[in-house]
Write a structure and sequence with these properties.
alpha/beta; Rossmann fold; two-stranded parallel sheet; 7 strands; NAD(P)-bd_dom_sf; SDR_fam; Sec_Metab_Biosynth_SDR; NADP; oxidoreductase activity
Length: 171
């Protein structure tokens, strides 16, 4: 399989805040194809995809023509579930022809509690979700992407990147 003409990136929790800012840099400043992961707000994720497409097209019209345009798309996946992470990586690599060069693991979750009320803070479901999103999800996504990142590094030594950035979504 021939190497892609541009790098492919996956940004988890990429539809808003820091994740969206990272997606913009990867797509518009570095010219990468970008998959934006989201959990619940499809409209926001699709709006970002449209923004990336519009800005890229405007730059092309302004005379910065590239041979191939990057591909931008959004995929819904609940990163607190390992099976969803595997599906997200599989769909990302399938859409890129079997390539993945950069993973930004930007997911996190917490529920704001009244810390002075011990009873309010002892919710096992919340603790399990917090641990799953803030700890295990980063391991699972790295594991799911490992094969693709190794292949990327074999094509272009040292080019594959996995970056874990914990940004807690608060409820």
């Amino acid at each position: 399989m021939a190497a892609p003409t541009r790098k492919v990136a996956l940004v988890t929790a990429g539809s808003a805040g820091l994740g969206a800012a990272i997606a913009r840099v990867l797509a518009l400043d570095l010219g990468m194809s970008v998959t934006i992961n989201y959990n619940s707000n499809a409209d926001r994720a699709e709006a970002l995809v449209q923004e990336l497409q519009d800005v890229w097209a405007a730059r092309q019209a302004a005379g910065t023509k590239q041979v191939t345009s990057p591909v931008f798309h959004a995929i819904r996946a609940d990163i607190s579930k390992r099976s969803e992470i595997v599906r997200l990586v599989d769909e990302t690599t399938a859409a890129s022809g079997g390539f993945l060069d950069v993973v930004v693991s930007n997911v996190g979750w917490t529920r704001m509690r009244e810390f002075s009320n011990l009873e309010d803070g002892v919710d096992e479901e919340d603790w399990d979700r917090c641990f799953g999103a803030n700890v295990k999800a980063h391991l699972w996504i790295f594991h799911a992407a490992k094969k693709w990142l190794e292949e990327s590094s074999a094509r272009d030594e040292g080019s594959a990147v996995f970056h874990c950035w914990l940004q807690a979504e608060r409820e």
